[in-house]
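worker-3 :: picked monogalactosyldiacylglycerol synthase
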Amino acid sequence: MGASHSATARSRDKQPEQEGLLLPTTATSPSPRAIERLNAEPPIHNDMTAITLPPTPTASVDQEKPFHVLVLMSDTGGGHRASAQALDAAFDSLYPSRSQITIVDFWTSVAGFPFHNFPRQYSYIAKRPWMWKLVFLWAAFPPTRWLTEAAFSLFCHSKVRRYFEAHDPDLIISVHPLVNTLSLSVLAAIRRAKRAPPPPFVTVVTDLGGAHPTWFDPRADMVYVPSEPLHQAALEAAVPEDRIRLFGLPIRPAFWQETRSPAQLRVELGMALNIPAVLLVGGGDGVGGLQAIALAIAARIAENCGSSAAQLIVVCGKNKSLLNRLQATSWPIPVILKGFVKNMSEWMSASDILCSKAGPGTIAEAWIRGLPIILTGYLPGQEEGNVRLVTESGSGEFHSQPDDIAECAAKWISDPELRAAIAERAKSLGRPRSCLEIASDIWDIAEQRQRERDAFRLRMLTSHSQHVPNGYIAMARFYVTNGLRSMQRGFRSVFRYSAVETVGPRE
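worker-3 :: tokens ->
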């Protein structure tokens, strides 16, 4: 890929970098090949034990040509890119030198104008919850959702089609809700034009307890969900049950490769060794009223437990002004202040309590590390379900006011038995193998589709010439057929009509 856009095409001799999870379900189980391969691995535990990766399985794809995987994401929040990089790492671990991964920001580098500023607009809106909720509801309400998707198609269909045809991927993975409808419509148009089976398209949902309806499109070959609530949401969106898999969130490799003990990590990170640690984070942008929360936690612990009873680590992200203000503050307990960090796995491993907004990846990572969670805020609509999952599972509490957050932290610091019980419940929800399970299952789907595509090409090469209809007749048939299909999709979107029996597998 050229340097003219921000797509990240990585050769497999490099090591990538982020998000797992959840409750028992009756969702469709992994494929037999995936089960056999993953059961052959030694068991993985939620402690610091290293994961031994399985031997590379035999593939049916061409060994001379790397399998090209296109991952569609957008930098609207750090979780989508982190999930893409986690899948990249999993493919590299399971299938070294046999897969070529291209991670591309769909709206910036593929769809382009007038939607190329989505990442910057997201950062602005996410800091204003009322505005975020308005945008969330706009894209979820069927009539306005249909208008939005019509605008996406009007401005971007041809650009997305040119990109797909130019790169000709063997597999497409979506880790962003707003790319699914447009991408699948483009693939359907390519299939009709070329009369050939397209590459498989799978969706990996990176939300946790609740998800926007645009995540779920019945035309996808497979939809990977991290929790039972999202399994139900996929069924309600008319996704066939045999095309839903429940594994967990794709999590950064550091969370399934760490071998150092918490004591070793504390020494390396410069933390006190023998007192509990409270880790306070506000995402990559350092939002969520971190200053007031940090001051309240430090004061309450010092008052209730003593000035040497605990330590506080505050990760300010890219918020440099916040970091400067906190550095100028006098603290009553030991405090470590950090800006943007790339080793969150180490900080979580070395800590005893996590305070964070209800981001899905952060919750999943805390579960893997067995951290009691104090949720301090959430994005309306998108993250409300995450709060329910944490509180109902007993792995944490939700408090929005700094004084209440501080009281909860001080209570857990002063009661080690209570803290240990909550940590055990959190640990039981961790899914450190989720990323490997997803990658293995996707690979099986891709291999099967590749065999079908190869067989189709062979039939086309060996079959007799087909009758080509008159050009005017073909053109009229194309426009009439597509007009009827557009009317049908519009009817279903506006009136939320979707019958599972009308949704067949993609060719």
